[in-house]
């Protein structure tokens, strides 16, 4: 199906259109051989709450962004290389239905589709694209390190490491970049270099720190990549404010913007094959 679209004018138009919608906030998307396979709105679980995001499935990448005007304007573009993407089912839980994990080295997360059928379609299409891509490139999956899905803030009243420390305005929540738990500052005082996520050592919990340290010593790797947060303010200052760029423009809790409502209204996965 995808083969038929590779050099088609319709495909070129659609790819160009996606690029236009992101405008200067996005990367050029029209690369030779790239096909837009499908698109639709999925609800993405961010650090604070669930938000609709426009997703575009290309034959080599999954692209998503915030919806400013549905079908017209998007920003905050993220591009995930499909060869690094893995999917994992998430079971229905109360109101949270039709979800799955999108696991990748940079930042894994959970998305929800509007219906079970749509979930099935999305997952099948993504998996097919990943498979085709890996076959085509003749590579087995790269053994890069996947990032954890972050536990949403609302799910932790207490530190998930020491279970004693209670969160408040002064005792802020932090996420371990290796396992994704929410923990207090002292339980995440260590830093470790996770090259897939950052060029600098980043926040990890004490359990992960120990695990990573012992792995490193087993592999006879020097500990030059680890450090204590206390010594270097540059590493810790303001770091968590950029934890989840999706929250950069906060809306009041419970408030749904017009764009978001429109998006929810017309959320269905649309495939081009
Ligand atoms: Zn703690
Ligand atoms: Zn951890």
From TrEMBL:
This is FYVE-type domain-containing protein. Keywords: Metal-binding, Zinc, Zinc-finger. SMART domains: FYVE, PH. GO terms for molecular function: phosphatidylinositol binding; zinc ion binding. It holds the Pfam family FYVE. One of its GO terms (biological process) is endosome to lysosome transport. Residues 222-273 are annotated as: Disordered. The lineage of its organism: Eukaryota, Metazoa, Spiralia, Lophotrochozoa, Mollusca. PANTHER family: PLECKSTRIN HOMOLOGY DOMAIN-CONTAINING FAMILY F MEMBER 1 HOMOLOG, PLECKSTRIN HOMOLOGY DOMAIN-CONTAINING FAMILY F MEMBER 2-RELATED.
């Amino acid at each position: 199906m995808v083969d038929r679209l590779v050099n088609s004018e319709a495909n070129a138009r659609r790819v160009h259109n996606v690029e236009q919608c992101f405008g200067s906030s996005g990367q050029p998307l029209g690369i030779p051989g790239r096909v837009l396979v499908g698109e639709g709105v999925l609800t993405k679980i961010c650090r604070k709450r669930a938000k609709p995001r426009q997703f575009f499935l290309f034959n080599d990448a999954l692209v998503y962004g915030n919806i400013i005007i549905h079908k017209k304007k998007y920003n905050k573009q993220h591009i995930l290389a499909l060869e690094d993407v893995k999917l994992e089912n998430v079971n229905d839980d109360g109101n949270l239905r039709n979800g799955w994990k999108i696991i990748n080295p940079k930042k894994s997360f959970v998305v929800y589709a509007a219906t079970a059928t749509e979930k099935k379609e999305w997952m099948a299409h993504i998996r097919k694209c990943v498979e085709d891509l890996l076959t085509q490139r003749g590579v087995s999956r790269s053994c890069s390190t996947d990032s954890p899905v972050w536990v949403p803030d609302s799910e932790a009243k207490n530190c998930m490491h020491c279970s004693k420390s209670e969160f408040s305005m002064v005792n802020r929540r932090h996420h371990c970049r290796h396992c994704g738990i929410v923990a207090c500052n002292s339980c995440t005082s260590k830093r470790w270099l996770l090259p897939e996520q950052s060029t600098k050592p980043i926040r990890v919990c004490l359990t992960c720190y120990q695990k990573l340290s012992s792995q490193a010593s087993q592999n006879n790797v020097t500990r030059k990549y680890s450090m204590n947060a206390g010594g270097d303010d540059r590493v810790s200052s303001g770091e968590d404010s950029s934890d989840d760029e999706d929250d950069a423009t906060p809306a009041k809790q419970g408030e749904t913007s017009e764009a978001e409502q429109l998006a929810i209204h017309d959320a269905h996965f649309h495939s081009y094959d």
